[in-house]
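Hey Z.,

So I finally got round to the calcium ion thing we talked about over coffee. Here's the setup:
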Amino acid sequence: MSFDPHALDLRFEAAKALAYEAGDVARRRFLDRGSFTIKFKGPQDYLTEVDQEVEALIAGKLARLFPGDGFIGEEGAGRDPMDGHPVWVVDPIDGTSNFAHGVPHFCISIAALVGTEIELGVIYDPMVDELFAARRGAGATINGVAMKAAATRHLKDATVEIGFNQRAGLDKYLRLIGRIAATGASTMRGGSGALGVAYVAAGRSDAYFENFINAWDCLAAIAMVKEAGGYASDFLANDGLRKGNPVLAAAPGLKDEALRLAAIEGLVP
Ligand code: IPD
Ligand code: CA
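And the result:
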């Protein structure tokens, strides 16, 4: 499936402008903590009014700019694309639990794909004013400077992130941490899958593992990892776009060891 590359470049520019605009809204609301209420979609699955407000802003603007494009958003906004048109995949606030607790580590994540190609990915962290961006075939940048995955070759030397949500279950999570920590790797959890995977692209982290994650949490960042020379598992296999999937992103030299030792069930390499 192909789509006019210039039309995709235009969308890339639009996504960056929208990420800044949405990020400004999220930052303002975050700093005015009394301005929003917090609800739950499920156990430990936070939802604030700001998630919905930011998704409506992004979905509305994209529909006006590119009426033939499809849309999938974490908070439920959806639209089918016209034949051959891109589909936008948006997480209005990734790291909602951090946002709700006053922890300044969250982001806006916007990806667009045509068929199974992630054509662009944009992530904006409004609290440190960092814009991560990747366009397929044209590299990945952070605030305009090229990103490159780390040169790490062994998990024993690595710092890695292991994401968690209730959907994949606690047992699997504990077993995964056990296998990875046993290698000597230092493990962490930052609470935003989008930033966690983007940090692999930036060489700030050596790998990101999660037993189950949704497309809006990780597609933009996967585009970045690939463009930054890193390894990312085939997230879109088995209808990952709609159903979610496990994910592994890693520095290129860690790919084989990480795949073998993580042994994540259902992961398509
Ligand atoms: C979650 C975060 C978390 C990841 C979960 C996601 P949310 O998204 O990205 O780090 O481990 O899988 O669901 O709820 O903050 O938008
Ligand atoms: Ca999310």
